[in-house]
Design goal:
Elements: E1 2-4, H1 6-22, H2 26-38, H3 42-61, E2 71-79, E3 82-84, H4 88-102, E4 127-133, E5 138-145, H5 147-150, E6 154-158, H6 163-178, E7 186-194, H7 199-208, H8 218-231, E8 247-257, E9 262-269, E10 276-279
Parallel strand pairs: 1-3, 2-4, 7-8
Antiparallel strand pairs: 2-5, 5-10, 6-9, 7-9
Helix pairs in contact: 1-4, 2-3, 6-8
Length: about 280
């Protein structure tokens, strides 16, 4: 067994929180620059230029990319030969509490979703997704999920007879409803299959797969391309101001499901697609 110290996980988690909060991933920067070069709409082009200026200042001055520093979401890939010295959620909550205070990040978690909605004061509890795999690897992906885009995300249980067309229509409808209030261009994560309680996690997992990656399944890889082609006609533009593009990218993750079900979840991530990754 490979033993991993709680302090090492703590330190890595804090590092990833800082990186995601202040530094936009290179793949996102490149895609924004690509869209800016192709954009013809004056207002949308100006917005993309301001988005670029914002991420440069954020990195140079160690300032948050967005005032909404989000829910702290951790995706863990842990080998079956790994032994932890502390409950993982305890370690990650400690790291989150310290990082959000030390880096002056906004605390956005309320203790009760109803009745008083008192802020917990340290952005905990964080949200932890654990995938156990073979071997002794330990990987963390951190995604600070802001409320604006999250609020425009949607879930549905389609009849299986709706098929591919039904999924495409639901995705398009979701983005149309989101509009400029979710800060496009979007990184769109789609979950298909599973159950009510798992399809949303699939959609988030699709987001952290990153830009420029294809689903390993050829049918779903083709569907990703077909949906992106369909969404190009929305011409929402940066911040909903009109223009050539609506999305940075769209990824799908899927899971087997019941013969009577077709769960679909669409998780929207704004143009500030903050994702950081690390391993021990």
């Amino acid at each position: 067994m490979r033993k991993i110290k709680a302090q090492d996980i703590h330190n890595l988690a804090k590092k990833l929180i800082r990186e995601a909060s202040f530094i936009l991933p290179e793949e996102v920067r490149s895609k924004l620059d690509e869209l800016n070069k192709k954009e013809q709409n004056t207002l949308s082009k100006k917005a993309l230029s301001e988005i670029t200026e914002n991420y440069k200042i954020a990195e140079q001055e160690s300032l948050p990319l967005c005032q909404d520093t989000g829910c702290a979401c951790f995706f863990i890939k842990m080998g079956h030969q790994v032994e932890l010295e502390e409950v993982l959620e305890i370690t990650l909550n400690k790291a989150t509490s310290e990082a959000y205070a030390e880096y002056y990040l906004r605390k956005s978690i309320c203790e009760k979703p109803l009745f008083k909605r008192v802020n917990t004061g340290d952005n905990t509890p964080c949200f932890v997704h654990i995938e156990q795999v073979e071997g002794d690897q330990f990987e963390i992906v951190f995604l600070p999920k802001g409320g604006g885009a999250e609020n425009k995300s949607r879930f549905t249980m389609l009849a299986p007879s709706k098929g591919v067309q039904g999924v495409m229509e639901f995705i398009r409808e979701t983005l149309e409803l989101a509009g400029g209030s979710a800060c496009p261009p979007f990184l769109v994560g789609v979950g298909v299959g599973g159950m009510f309680d798992t399809v949303g996690s699939l959609a988030k997992k699709a987001i952290i797969r990153g830009i420029g990656t294809d689903n390993l399944d050829s049918d779903f890889a083709k569907l990703e391309q077909d949906i992106k082609k369909d969404l190009s006609s929305l011409k929402m533009g940066a911040m909903g101001l009109g223009g050539n593009e609506t999305i940075l990218d769209l990824n799908i993750e899927y899971s087997p499901c019941h013969i009577a079900s077709l769960p679909v979840a669409v998780n929207i991530q704004c143009h500030s697609a903050r994702i950081s990754k690390g391993s021990l």
